[in-house]
Amino acid sequence: MPFNWELGENAIRQWLRIGSGYGDQNVIHLNDNGSRPTTDYIGFSLSDLVPIGSDAVTTTFDGARPNGSQIEIKVQGERESTLTIQAFTTSRNANSSARAVLSRVLTAVGLPTVRAALSAAGLVIWRHGQVQFLPAVLNTGFEGRAIMTCTLRCTDDISELTTWIQTAEAIDENTGNVIIITT
CA dist 20 to 4, 12, 26, 48, 163, Å? Predict the structure, then answer.
């Protein structure tokens, strides 16, 4: 089955909510339209899927399928994507700082509910980077900011159904006779 982006992003949202303790409205996709939340929040973005190595091509036959669809040709391969997670907080220090929030998000990867959600979406955290603390000036004060990237892996596949040639007609060039070949 092809990678389900909606399912994948929902699993990532669940992980970020559990790790941060933030509600739905405070875990946003960075590429969505709309304004940023007025309170502390986490934003994330997922890069395109990049193939890793060569894809496998398999062919299977099922005579019970309807005519024209007895053969399935399937292409399957491992894919990698970079997940960027950013935290924005009003606090620059202590347990509510952006770096503390992302540290908890990273620790939450070990929780069974987080692993189950990511697994159900076909995602595995392959590796993660360190949390980087990047406070910045917002309006007239400092805003706590931190960023972290993770490499996620999944399997992506696609298939099509086809059939084989059951009957072919050929014309004998010497005699002009029609020859019917049946498999």
Answer: 24, 12, 10, 25, 52
CB half-sphere exposure, 168, CA atoms < 13 A: 7
Burial of residue 50, with CB atoms counted within 10 A of its CB: 0-12 exposed, 13-18 middle, 19 or more buried: exposed
Determine the Cα–Cα distance for residues 49 and 110; give it in Å rounded to an integer: 24
Predicted TM-score (pTM) of this structure? 0.80
pLDDT of residue 6: 93
DSSP line for 35-91: PPPSS-EEEEEEPPPEEEEEEEEEEEE-TTSPTT-SEEEEEEEEEEEEEEEEEEES-
CA max distance for the chain:
94
Side-chain half-sphere CA neighbours of 103 within 13 A? 9
Q: Side chain identity at 27, as an amino acid letter?
A: V
For the beta carbon of residue 65, count every other beta carbon within 10 angstroms: 13
Model pLDDT for residues 143-152, shown as the tens digit of each residue: 788 999 999 9
DSSP lists the bridge partners of residue 124 as 153
